[in-house]
Fold this sequence. Notes:
By secondary structure, this protein is α/β, with parallel strands linked by helices. 20% of the residues lie in helices and 25% in strands. The protein folds into 2 domains: 1-42 and 152-231, 3-Layer(aba) Sandwich (Dihydrofolate Reductase, subunit A), CATH 3.40.430; 54-149, no CATH class. The longest helix has 12 residues, at 138-149. The protein starts with a strand and ends in a 9-residue tail after the last strand. NADP nicotinamide-adenine-dinucleotide phosphate (NAP) is lined by residues 9-11, 17-19, 46-50, 87, 89-90, 92, 136, 157-162, 165, 190.
Amino acid sequence: MRPRVTLHMMSSIDGRIATAGWPISVDAGEAYEMLHRDLRSDAWLVGRTTMAAFADGEARPVVTDQSYPRQTWKAAGAGMAPYAIYLDRSGHLHLNRERVNGDALIAVLTTAVSDHYLAELRRDGISYIFAGEADLDLSRALHILRTEFGIETLLLEGGGAINGAFLGGDLIDEVSLLILPIADGKPDVPTTFDDNLEGARPLDFISAENLDGGILHLRYRVLSGRPGTST
Ligand SMILES: NC(=O)c1ccc[n+]([C@@H]2O[C@H](COP(=O)([O-])OP(=O)(O)OC[C@H]3O[C@@H](n4cnc5c(N)ncnc54)[C@H](OP(=O)(O)O)[C@@H]3O)[C@@H](O)[C@H]2O)c1
């Protein structure tokens, strides 16, 4: 049992997703957030790098001699959805806050993270779950989020490596993609899906909508199973 997962992203026409510095005349961020609200999910989930943009001030690490069980911990303020979830297999992210955009934070960790890091999350009121020993088992993470936090619908919001890992694991049901009228062309920047796909995947078209400023909103259903290849 896992939540229904919708990938929600915006990209240039060549699939790049690092939007900083793009010369666009409309507020693409506003269009993205409006659709985020319209998609009405119980949670949104991002990678460590993407969530780092929400850190509040400098890192304030904790040093502890306590040892914490590697079990789900729920912060007092984490009672109900929507949740803001991030993957951090090594415990590197220092957010100094318990909510982002009003949504209670949940960290998805491996059991390899330090007790110091767990003490920091407890101090900051960030709930956490464990989904793997050295690497994250994304399917297991989704199962725990569903059964222990009641999350039935989830927006996956990047970056590229994580999106690729979810799609490669057959863990995305639908894609909601804003295409901005930008040709980027930068080398070595994240794209909508980086790595981990284990072969190109066909998608089933749902809809296309023209938004203000030449932005296109495309929706696709992800087809289950792995197709044969063509040349
Ligand atoms: N246009 C959009 O809609 C949109 C949306 C989101 C983000 N962005 C942009 O995308 C950029 C960040 O993308 P990104 O791909 O570099 O970063 P990201 O996915 O947010 O985070 C990358 C980190 O995630 C961890 N990771 C990678 N693969 C993983 C896996 N399979 N399981 C668990 N953790 C994994 C790694 O960190 P560890 O080594 O610590 O595990 C990696 O350094 C930023 O510029 C951001 O603004 C754009």
